[in-house]
Design brief:
Structural class: alpha/beta
Distance between the termini: 5 Å
Strand order of the largest sheet: 1-9-7-6-5-4-3-2
Shape: globular
Oligomer: single chain
């Protein structure tokens, strides 16, 4: 099976390998501050899906720390033209805050010469018109790409209620089409492995995304991690439920990839749960084995 991976897409677009810098904007989430609820979605840790992000410091210091983390894994003395990054504001909801403050922060990120794009993790119910207008201004002024990453997780309303997502599918649909009409790159996050969803339920989510018009730019397929300290973790500790095996997950990912449009960029085929918090599935802690097994399954499909 031939897919477009994020690494391949970035290398073709920018002429070299590009790395993400996980950053924090200081935003909260309406599912945490009481606007909708407290505690977040049932799977979300205290890190707000940004457990590996740089600490909340002035942006230049965040960038320095995030680059140091990336550079520690790379060959020394890389040529300057090869040092390209995406500023990825990952934790919580990064369009949920004062427009003026976020405009200044994101403008500063885009002004860094080594930053080639800005990526914002957010919710589809946190994209008011003034926020989109601000992001359009930044994109036009910088000449750099701005990606919007939407946490959908599932199309099923029963799942939305059970995970305390806080918005119906119609809100996602509206946000997606507004973002595409405004010219933004849109990446959607999907979680595979909710214990009450069948394979057919999960594939229905992928079919819905595959039928979007305009086509979906990118997708992140995320294995459900049961983390200590989350509501889902407390449910699991009280009464353990079955999670996917590695073989089951690989087979499901292959089915998902077969359904997606061939021009959709595959940003992720699994994910990392902090080992200190991971309750299940424990096999997911061996990232190298997981990726090798997934890539082999995709290659053989």
């Amino acid at each position: 099976m031939k897919i477009i991976t994020l690494s391949e897409y970035l290398k073709e677009k920018y002429g070299t390998k590009v790395y993400k810098l996980s950053l924090q904007s200081g935003c909260s989430c309406p599912n945490r501050d009481g606007t909708l609820s407290y505690g977040g979605c049932i799977f979300c840790s205290e890190g707000g899906s940004g457990d590996f992000a740089a600490p909340l410091l002035p942006l230049k210091e965040q960038l320095r720390l995030a680059k140091a983390r990336v550079e520690a894994k790379l060959p020394k003395n890389r040529a300057e033209e090869e040092q390209k990054y995406i500023a990825y504001f990952q934790s919580y909801t990064n369009t949920y805050g004062p427009v003026e403050r976020l405009e200044a922060l994101y403008r500063e990120a885009l002004a860094q010469p080594e930053i080639v794009a800005l990526s914002l993790g957010t919710r589809p119910d946190c994209l008011p018109d003034e926020m989109l207008a601000m992001l359009q201004r930044l994109r036009e002024a910088s000449g750099k790409d701005i990606w919007i990453e939407l946490g959908l997780q599932s199309i099923h309303e029963t799942t939305a209620e059970r995970i305390h997502r806080g918005y119906p599918l119609a809100v996602f649909d509206n946000a997606y089409h507004r973002l595409k009409a405004a010219g933004f790159t849109v990446i959607v996050h999907v979680i595979l492995g909710f214990p009450w969803e069948t394979d057919d339920d999960m594939l229905a989510t992928i079919r819905y995304l595959s039928a979007l018009n305009p086509h979906l730019d990118g997708i992140k397929l995320q294995l459900l991690h049961v983390l200590r300290g989350t509501e889902l973790g407390r449910m699991y500790e009280a009464e353990p439920f079955r999670t996917l095996s590695l073989d089951e997950y690989c087979a499901l990912v292959v089915k998902c990839l077969r359904l997606l449009p061939p021009d959709t960029v595959i940003h992720r085929i699994t994910g990392d749960g902090p080992k200190r918090l991971l309750l299940a599935p424990l096999w997911s802690a061996d990232k190298k084995k997981v990726l090798n097994t997934l890539n082999r399954a995709i290659h053989e499909a």
